[in-house]
Structure formats: C-alpha cells, structure tokens
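Reply to dn_fold:

You asked what the input looked like. This is it:
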Amino acid sequence: MNKKDKRGVKADIAGKPNTKLIHAKISEADDKRIEELADYLQIPKMTLIRNLLLSGLDDAETLKKTGILAVAKGVKKTSEFLNQFKTIKESESIKNN
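and this is what came back:
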C-alpha cells in the first residue's frame, strides 16, 4: 500500500511481511530536525526514521561484538557504585557531626 506524505513523496507504509509498528516520544526540536533532513533527502519522514533506527541498532550491535559496549556498561556500573558510596559517606559524615 503506497500513500503520499505531505510533500507528495510516495511512502511504502504497509505490505511488508514481519513488520511491527512502534511508538516513540521525541522533542519538537528533534522532530523538526528529522523533518528538515527528510525534506533535504527527499524521502518520507518515516523512511528516514526507520533508517536512522536501524543504523543505530547496527552500530550498537557492532559495539557489543567488539566489547566496547561491555566497557561502557562497566563504566556506568562503576559510576553508580561510586555515587552510592559518596551518598553513604556523606550520610555518615552528617551523623558524626
């Protein structure tokens, strides 16, 4: 099923097997950025969003395969631990004063 978006560009919206509709919230500013880029590329906005999503997913999977994502995950956990430790130390300091 082909429809035209507001720019008159044909968009393949349905008819693809094994597709699923997802919803996401983004800021007005980000929506405007996506719209401007889609206009510049002369492609439907949803096509651009799908391509951006899938390329980001490919990048994340590559980072996972190379171990970089695990390092980032470890850094995040270390940061969370240090923040908890800092909170405990601060509460102990308040109790002792």
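The longest helix spans residues 68-96.
Hope that clears it up.
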